[in-house]
Amino acid sequence: MKIDRYVSPTELILKNQIIMNDIRQKNHELFEKTDKTNKFMIITYGCQMNEHDSEKLIGMLKLMGYERTEVKEDADLIIFNTCCVRENAELRVYGNLGHLKSLKEKNPNLKIAVCGCMMQQAQVVEEIKKKYRHVDLIFGTHNTHNFPSLLSKAFGTKNTVVEVWDNEGEIIEGLPLERKFGLKAYVNIMYGCNNFCTYCIVPYTRGRERSRKTEDIINEIEGLVNDGIKDVTLLGQNVNSYGKTLENKISFSDLLREVNKIEGIERIKFMTSHPKDISKELIDTMAECEHVCEHLHLPIQAGSNRLLKAMNRNYTVEKYMEMINYAKERIKGLSISTDFIIGFPGETDEDIEDTIKLIKEVRYDSAFTYIYSKRQGTPAYTYENQIDEKLKHVRFEKVLDELNKIIIEKNANRKGEILEVLVEEKSKSEDKLLTGRSRMNNGVHFEGSDELIGKFVLVKITNPKKFSLVGELVEVLDK
Ligand code: SF4
Description:
- The chain has helices spanning 9-34, 48-63, 87-106, 122-131, 147-155, 202-206, 214-226, 252-260, 280-288, 305-310, 317-330, 349-362, 389-412; strands spanning 39-44, 67-68, 77-82, 111-116, 137-139, 161-163, 184-188, 190-191, 210-211, 231-235, 267-271, 295-297, 335-342, 366-371, 418-426, 434-438, 443-446, 456-464, 469-476.
- By secondary structure, it is of the alpha/beta class.
- It has 3 domains: 9-163, 3-Layer(aba) Sandwich (Rossmann fold); 184-412, pyruvate-formate lyase- activating enzyme (Alpha-Beta Horseshoe), CATH 3.80.30.20; 418-476, CATH 2.40.50.140.
- The strands form 5 sheets. It has a 6-stranded parallel beta sheet with strand order 2-1-3-4-5-6, with helices on both faces. The chain has a 5-stranded mixed β-barrel with strand order 15-16-17-19-18.
- Strand 3, helix 3 and strand 4 (111-116) form a beta-alpha-beta unit.
- Helix 8 packs parallel to helix 9 (280-288).
- The radius of gyration is 23 Å and the shape is globular.
- Residues 193, 195-197, 200, 202-203, 237-238, 274 line the site of iron/sulfur cluster (SF4).
- Monomer.
- Residues 412-475 form the TRAM domain.
């Protein structure tokens, strides 16, 4: 696909600003005439990167005078922000696009847009253009900043508008965005990935690694803190290599120290760390910076060196354990989470035993466990030693059992502990309780009035559940 970069980032922002104003004016006129506001619905699949891209799209749509709806029949614009990491998510997108055909027949003014990682694959774009002709707009992960212009083009044609850049351009700063949570915010510190794990499509869909300038990140976080955000998660596919692409070299540890100095910030988290790049310096920084939370997400993927090599992960179980042990020693009360892939090509029962051994040694507080799913375009797609689906599920259950035993035991041991909790909302699972997160990322529920939402409180754990903690309010903190 052709890359058409005829304007600088500043010109691009200005151009899109004019288009946004124009669409906003049209939406305003429509409201004056009919009392109706145009509405959009956005469905996001996948990781925090996609969630964050959706926040940018929502920010732009709100500036264009659109209102959000969760009811597809009420929407004038429906957007699917897709993920291609797992086959299931892809199939759901195709299914949902198919269902929208009848809706579009009833309401020809409805616009349908598809964006995100799936669109970075040429065969997917071709399939959508051929089989889902009711889709109005297709754009890629590197084209989010140009959304207003693309939407405007889609209004002026019956053909599908397509803009997918093969690779990344300059980082575009200053896009409007609407944050999902009022208290917590994700902040991208870098984009893309250079690691090429053999199972992963991300380097092909999100492009090569590039870091945002430190001053842009700091300015954004200062603005967020001024707006009342207390909890910031720094996002990147591999945050440990932050700064390598910048002219003024700076490490991720240095960035953490800078963020830690921002007045008014309470909690700093980050994800994702790559075990090959995590350093003792970073662990020391976590231990020394008061606002950096005591939680480390360090995806191991498998407990067998043979499999880690086949996955092109570039670390060994021994190096991983060295870092885990150092982190446990340096950071008091540290909680550790990870990712596992079960059923990678060539996996044996012995590899699973190695993974279980590692689980027992680390004693994780939580883990995301995935069944391997073949992704076209990745090296592992072509491997002949794929694992039988039934066997993958048997091994998955076995690993999950071991993980759950430890997680339940660790939660039970928290009985009587007093945890600092940022209260987020009313609990969806525990009737009449409020819910929030501890600094170690535990979900904590307790009884309290709605005025506590947004506050920091101390909660004494009285009733640890399998995967969450229930307690009693001890004190409301003044911060
Ligand atoms: S580090 Fe590996 S798994 Fe993570 S995004 Fe990069 S290629 Fe994918």
